[in-house]
Amino acid sequence: MKRALITGGSGAIGAAICRRLARDGFHVVIHTHRQRETAEALCAELVKAGNAAEVTQFDVTDADAARAALDGLLEQGPIQVVVNNAGIHDDAVFPGLRPEQWHRVIDVSLHGFFNVTQPLTLPMIRTRWGRIINLTSVAALTGNRGQTNYAAAKGALHSATKSLALELASRGITVNAIAPGIIESEMSKDTFDAEAIARLVPMKRAGKPEEVAGLVAYLASEEAGYITGQILSINGGMV
């Protein structure tokens, strides 16, 4: 059974990804930083349904903590699917953007990608099969007022995705990014009301976490073995 690590697995999109990959037969490793109880409840739900799951907890911005946790996971064998879903918003117009807002957002999305993915790459290479899937944002494609830090972090992930895909293509490992638009979550409810969604999204609705999870599941599948280095949008026609 292949193992899949989903960072930020206790959030709305992360949990949907965990449920879908578990349903598809992966042993799911649910990562959390601060929401241990939520992650444990999700794990219990998956196990009760007959799936294989476990929880790991660490700060993706802490390289040493990430390495220690990942080394422990690797003692059980390689992780062949990595979904880099952890990310945060800390929005402000650029003239008022504090240095800590800039660094924190980039630390989680970009440095977190490195801290999690790099230690898992060689074990994955040895299996000659792997899937690295990076969750980014429509903001990285179009920009967004008040999100220069977030767009910069996610846009850098797009470039990293394309470069890493070239490095790993001959090893049976694909590397892709998914750029969601407005997806239903507690965070989006506070940011986008129905009027804003109708104005911004041609489909006139927010996406569902399960729709993002379905795309992740496809990219993690055998059928997607010839897709690599791509940025796939899921945004209801925004771009």
Please give the structural blueprint.
Layout: E1 3-6, H1 12-23, E2 27-32, H2 36-48, E3 53-57, H3 63-74, E4 81-84, H4 99-127, E5 130-135, H5 139-142, H6 148-168, E6 173-180, H7 186-191, H8 194-200, H9 209-219, E7 231-234
Parallel strand pairs: 1-2, 1-4, 2-3, 4-5, 5-6, 6-7
Helix pairs in contact: 1-9, 3-4, 4-6
Question: What report would you give on this structure?
Answer:
- The chain is of the alpha/beta class and 239 residues long.
- The protein has a single domain, classed as NAD(P)-binding Rossmann-like Domain (Rossmann fold), CATH 3.40.50.720.
- Helices cover 48% and strands 15% of the residues.
- The chain contains nine helices and seven strands, in the order βαβαβαβαβααβαααβ.
- It has a seven-stranded parallel β-sheet, sandwiched between helices.
- Helix 3 packs parallel to helix 4 and helix 4 (99-127) packs parallel to helix 6 (148-168).
- The protein is globular, with a radius of gyration of 17 Å.
- The protein starts with a strand and ends in a 5-residue tail after the last strand.
